[in-house]
Amino acid sequence: MIALLLALGSSLAYGCADFLGGLGARKAHVLRTVTIAAPASLTVELLLWPFLGASFAPATLAWGAASGVASAAAFALLYRTLAIGPMNVLSPVTALISAMLPVAVGLTQGERLGPAGLIGLPLALAAVVLVSAGHGSGSIRPSRTALLLAFGAGVAIALQLIFLHQAPADSGVGPLIIGRAVSSAITLAAALLMYRRLGSEKPAYAMSAAAGVLDSVANLLFVLAARSGDLAVVAVITALYPAGTVLLARSVLAERIHRGQLIGLSTAAAAVSLLALT
């Protein structure tokens, strides 16, 4: 139950971070937003170091760095995917892949689910697709390139979570610090290389920093959840992060929640209840 609650908290934090990051990216180039969010994220993890401890053993360094590379790749692929569109098709593809791969890894590593879990897990995967899908786009179909990018983004997100889970259980926030440092370095390097193409708009500093802080909180809660529960369950609950984004968009921007998303939210609630019994 503790792992489930931590995973729900991680999902909510990811959803809020995406919402704020998306709003920030409307005001300036997304790389300008990330150059504010990344240092804010790293600062939070460094502040947590004295309280939660951190080990920097070779395994921690390796898995942390791998998660940082995957995080940077996920960022680039995801935003490129959504830029091509249509979002209502590509977003569910990305979310589903990011949920399925950690589930597969967890099951192959010997995790076992009870009867309730065997029903709740497929329901949660279905909820991921329904919640992340937007309003239908009629006859618009994604190109092969867009589908490949969406698949790649899902794989990169999944790998980030898997690599964080593989880090030693006694490493504290070590893998988070290493991963954030690596992803920040890659992102900042990309921003410097593309500086002339970033435009002159100033980023939304407070909003971007808040997105970075929430992303760090989400990563921390995921790591704690994965260390105290099954990766298969934790990963699929975490992948419900679009629900938080959808609910915030409804509350703050008065965006309409479509029928499929309402069904997805209800399905998610049922799935979480079943997984809690596992």
Describe the protein's architecture and organization.
The chain is built from eleven helices and no strands. The model has no long low-confidence stretch (mean pLDDT 82). It has 278 residues and is mainly alpha-helical. α2 crosses α8.
Task: Estimate the mean pLDDT confidence.
Answer: 82
Given helix and strand content, the structural type is: mainly alpha
Count of DSSP E strands? Answer: 0
List the uncertain runs.
none
Q: What is the chain-wise order of helices and strands?
A: HHHHHHHHHHH
**What composes the largest sheet?**
none
The value of Rg in angstroms is 18 Å
Task: Determine the strand fraction and express it as a percent band.
Answer: under 5%
Helix content: over 70%
Oligomer: single chain
Distance between the termini: 9 Å
In short:
With 278 residues, the chain is mainly α.
Present the secondary structure layout.
Blueprint: H1 2-27, H2 30-52, H3 58-84, H4 87-108, H5 115-132, H6 144-166, H7 174-193, H8 205-228, H9 231-238, H10 242-252, H11 259-276
